[in-house]
Structures are given as structure tokens and as C-alpha cells.
Amino acid sequence: MAALQTIRNKGAILVGVIGLGLFGFIAGDLFNALETTAAFNKQQVGEVYGKQIDIIEYQNLVEEMTEIEKMQRAMQGQSDQLTDADLENLRNFVWSDFVRSEVIGRQAAEAGITVTDADFQNALRLGNAQSLRIMAAIFGTQDGRLDVAALQDFLKKKDQTLAQAMQENNGMYEQIQTILKIWNFTEKQLRKELLQQKFYTTLNMCCVSNPVSAKLAFDEANNQARVAVAALPYSAIANEEAVVEDKDVQAVYAQYKELFKNSAETRDLAILDVQVAASAEDKEALTAEVNAIAQALATTEDVATVVNNSNTLVSYSGVPVRKEAFARWNDIASKLDTAKVGTFIPAFYTAADNTVNTFRLIAKKQLPDSVLYRTIIAAAQDIEASKTLADSIATAVKNGASFTELAKKYNQPTDSMWIYTAQFEQSAVNAQTANAFNTLFDMKKGETKAVLSDQGLSMVFQVLDQANEVTKYDLAVVKCPNDFSEATYNNELSKINKFLSENTTLEAIQENALAAGYMVNELPNFSASSSQLEMNIGGTKDAVRWAFDEAGVNEVSRLYECGANKDHLLVVMVKGINKAGYLNWDNATIKTALTNIAQQEKKATVALAKVAEAKSMSDALAVAGVAADTLANATFALNARTTLVGAAEPALSGAIAKAKAGEFVGPIKGAAAVYFIQVLDNTASEATYNEVQEMQNASQRAFSNIVMQSFYGTNETLVNTLAEDAEVVDNRYKF
Is the peptide bond before 346 cis (omega within 30 degrees of 0)? Predict the structure, then answer.
């Protein structure tokens, strides 16, 4: 009781103490929550309509897309080696796909558009959707569509097939897993594609023409005129006659203000980029090295080792290929016709790709371009057993056994397939694969042969047919990049560091760069969503992060070493910070553009005054600076363009469409000149008017003007327009 009384007596104090304790508890949770939220936000690559994509999900999608791209290249017989530019394109595709899917998904949901399981199954049955092209290459019909029955059978038995492949340990397990990955990707993409198709189909149905509009459009396209034109180009007006003041620029800004609206913060940057290139000494040393390789090629029997141990861009496999295989290296292809078998070419330099080269033509053969064949893979417990099995199968076939029945006996497909030289001639192949290709293309029609391998599975080939005999070349090419040496790099690094130590401010760098042999490029209104400062230079994200997260106006960055080979020395300068919203009229870049427009307007006023008294074509042509031209087949459907001005002129097209034959019309204020016209004659084409067809054409034109590109395009106009209201946040530059 005493204790209870004490609590009562100290009630106010205890309430305060408990309150403070609770506040501390709540505040602690609040601070922890805020820290957790901040950490979470730091992991966000971006968001659309509030839906966020974090770095882990984004990277997983990029890795998935990278695997798919490599698979596609391998299936097309191309190298699966991706450059930095390739990877950047894939990252951009993943982001664009995310934005497009969310934007169209929101619009489709509001319109009640959905993709049902029936839609999905129907798309599979038809088998011609864009998203199915990879699966169709694996489970395909003769006409290139997806074989749904084969795919469904594979998916139904996938667990059983995986278990069997794991037990047999014959390399098929990884292939099956790869196909399943492709299917998972395909399934997601197909549903996106179907939703977008439904959305665009619905949108297309909303674009409806009427008979009056259709007839007008037909007449506009088919009524043609031959027109005499007199033009006073604005370029003929001296700048001194059209002085532009700030009030003129502001007036134009008010007219075009909506064009200068940023959805996110941007930067006005200046870039000092020095590309390090090989010196004359570097080139001389490389030429000597390639000449030494050329001498070795002339005498060695192990050509593959000599070539592949060099720094060549073209690997050697020993498989004869067509001349077309070297089409991207015209410096090599152009010398093949005159090259002699067994001889080598001394080292030569090619400026187009900055390489030093040599090659040896080992053999020149007449071989089929394509072969129809079938095969049985000899899967046994070890390499020797596999070789023995392949030998016995080939012997059995030669002695009259049915290839088809033997294939069934060993659980192999009995189908035949064509192989084309183009499928593999652009790819690097290992010795085992090269041996298989050489065997297959050297075989005669109807011949059966075992291909024995000391490295993996042996197999049996049977050639059923051959087509299109062509000349093939067994060519060993050494194409070495003329890269800079470490000494050259250090020299360039020392030079630019000296320049930067003497010029520490933005103004000093811009003023003195040219004299030091450097160029400063302007990069106005640069968006962080661009990620890279320059498309052809990788590794600039650190510089972008600095510009957006650390730098202030007029600050100069440290020196960044960028590029795939660290061959770019880059300095970034921040000239201005543009907040989200409308750019100011006096922004340097905006003002320059607006001044040009304002000056064109003033020149138009001056030009109109010069020709104000012209009452006929002869009067107009008498004015200084006016030139004559004739337009043939002018229609209202296309913007008129005269050879003497060269600009597209909608106003001129409209005037021609309204003018009667023989009528003198003008002056007409155009985009690049003031015009006078006189229609010499009008003609109508012999096209027959089809109301239904013309209404469809008019509707399709309206739809195309809205969309501008197919829904596979990453810069689709409609999606970009819709995305303006999607509250898109792009933080990719941070990662």
C-alpha cells in the first residue's frame, strides 16, 4: 500500500519519466525506420508511378537479358562476347522495358484491357509472336513458327528429362537448364507483348476517319501541280538588318516555352576529353612484332598456336570459310583473290580499324556451302567407350543397318537438318568442333563417318544432301590493334596533369585548352538518365555521379581515366544546374537557339518589306536576292521543298493547294524564305478512289502520327509522352 501511495504521490514525475522513456523508445524506432528507409532508397534504381525497382532486381534483369543475348548470338553463329557498349545497350533496354511496361500497364488497366490465359495459349498456338522467336529456333516448324506440341511435351517431361540427363552426365543437363531459362524469360515477355498489342489495337480502333476526310486526303495526295516559284531566302538577309534584342528572345521563349521543360534536374556541362592514341614508336614496334609472327607463320605446322598466342582479333580454327566471312575486314578480303596458297603477307597497317596485319593462305578449296545431315551422338561411360561405340555404329550403317533404327535404339532424334557455312564462319570454334565441321563438309553425299574425339563425345554423321559448291579459304589472320604503350599513356597523363595544374578553374580551362591542343565540348541540359557522358566511352558513371551528387556551379572535377582500355582522360566542368521544370530563357544553350529563331523572324519581316510591292512574278524576280525555281508534282500531302532553299515548307504546300492555275500568289512567309508562286498547270493521277480503303489509310496515318514507332521501339513517342505523367525517377547513374 505504501508503495502504491508513493506512486500516487509521485504521479506527475513518473508520467514525465515514463513519457520520456516512451519518447526515447518511439524515437529510437523512428530513427531506425528513417535509417532503414534511407538505406532502402539508396538501393532504388528508379520508379514509375511509384513502383520501384531496386538494384538487385535490376541487375538480375540485366543478367537475364545478357544471357539471352549471348544465347541468341550463339544460335546465329555469332560470337557471344559482349562489349561495354553492348552491355550498356542491354541495361538501357531493361530500363526502357520497365518504363514501357509500367506506363502501358497503367493505361491498359484503366481501359480494362487484360491478357487472359486463353490469349496466351492462342499466341503459343499461332507461334509467330516476336517474343517466341528464340523458342521457335529450338522448337520450330519448317516455316519458322513455334512447334507448340514439341514445347509442351518438353515442359511436361522436363523433370524426368533433367533427372535422366543428370544420371547420364553427358552435358545435356546444362543445355536443358538453359532452355528452361529461355522459356521463363519468353513467358514473361510474351505476356508483356500481348498486353501492348491489345493496348495498341484498342488505340488504333479509336482512330476513325470519315468519307469527307478520306476524300480530302486522297485528293491531296493525287492532285499534283507544276509550279513556278520565286524565293527570297532569309540567308540572303544580312544579320545587321535583323538585330535581336533580349525582348525578342523572351517573346520567342513564351511561344516555345513548353519545349524547354525538364521532368528532372539536369546539368550544363563542359567536357575536356583526351583520347590516348598509339605513337609512331608504338606503331613501329608493333609492325616489327607482326612481321616476326608472319615469319613464324611461313614455316610452322602449328598455325593455330602461332595465331591464337598473338594479340589478334581474329582467332584461327582451321575450318575453311567463304570470302564473306572476312567482309568486315575489307583489308583482308580484298587481298584474297590475289593471294597464293602457302605464302604469307608482310605486315601492313589498316587505318580504318587501326590495326597491323598479316595472314597466310593455307588452303583454297571447292566445298559445299550447305549440307543436309543427321547424327547419332555416342554417349557412353567414358571417352574411350564413346569412341568405340561411334565406330561400331558407323560400321553397322556401312554394312547395311538402318541409321534411323540405330538412332531410335540410342534414344536419338531421327530428323535431318541443314547446316550452312554462314552459321559458324563468324564464330570462334574449338578444335573438337572444327574437326566435326571439317569432317561434315568434306564428306560425300550418302557417306557415313564416325568423328572420334579425345575431348568429349564422339558422334556419327551421315550426309544426305549437299548444295551450292563455293570457294572456301583456310586462312590464318593476325590482326593486332595498334594500341598505345605504357610510356605513351604516361606521357599523355603527364601533359594533361601539367595543364590542369596551371589551369584550375572552368574559365581558365576553356580559355587555354585550344592553345594546349585540347578541345572543350559543351554538353548542355545533360540528364542523369543518360548514365554515360559519351556513348562511345565507357566508365564515365563516376563522373556523372560527381556532377549530380557532389559538384556545384563552376566546379571542375578530378581527372577520370575512362574507356574500355582506359584510353580516355576526362575532365568534367559544371557550368549550370537546371532544376526540374522550365529552363530559363537566358540559359546559354536555350538563348542561342531562341536567338536563331528570333533572328529568322526578323529576317522574315525584312524580306516581306523588300518584296511588298511585287504584283507579278517578274516584279518578284526583280528584287535583289530573289531566285527562281520550278516544282514538279507538288501535292498538299507532302511539304514542298525547293532546290534553291532546301527547307520543308508546309505554308508553301498549303498555298499551292489553294491556288488556281495561272494565279499569282504571294508573298508567302515560310520557315526559311518568303515565296511567290504561280501554278502552271494542275493534273490528277489516274488512281481510283476507294472510299473504304482511303478511310482505313487515313485512320492508320492518324494512328501512326500518335505512335510514331512500333511498340518494340525504345524511343516510342507515345510512351514518352505518357511517361511525363508517370512520375518517372531514374537513378541509374548512381549504380
Answer: no
3-class DSSP assignment, residue 144:
coil
Q: Which residues contact 130 (CB under 8 A, 6 or more apart)?
A: 193, 712
265-277+485-579 and 281-481 in the same fold: yes
Domain 281-481 has CATH 1.20.1250.20: no
* Model pTM above 0.90: no
Beta bridge partners of 227: 631, 679
Using one digit for the tens of pLDDT, what is the confidence trace for 591-616? Answer: 888 999 999 999 999 999 999 999 99
Overall CATH class of domain 265-277+485-579: alpha beta
Partner residues linked to 53 by β-bridges: 46
Q: Which residue has the cell 544460335?
A: 75
Collect all residues with Cβ–Cβ distance below 8 Å to 12 and sequence separation of at least 6.
Answer: none
295 or 212, which is more confident?
295
Give the model's pLDDT for residue 134: 82
Cell of 49: 508511378
Cell 580516355 sits on residue:
568
- Provide the Cα torsion 532, 538, 543, 544; round to 10°: 20
What gap in Å lies between CA 640 and CA 147, rounded to an integer?
Answer: 51
Q: Rounded to an integer, what distance in angstroms lies between the CA atom of residue 346 and that of residue 291?
A: 6
Residue appearing with cell numbers 480503303? 693
Grid coordinates of 369: 556451302
Query: Per the structure block, which three cell numbers stand in for 329?
Result: 575486314
In the chain, where are the structural domains located?
Answer: 2-42, 51-206+726-734, 218-261+589-684, 265-277+485-579, 281-481
Greatest pairwise CA separation for the chain in angstroms: 120
Cα 562–564–567 angle (5° rounding)? 55
Contacts of 536 (CB under 8 A, 6+ apart): 85
Mapped onto helix, strand or coil, the DSSP state of residue 630 is strand
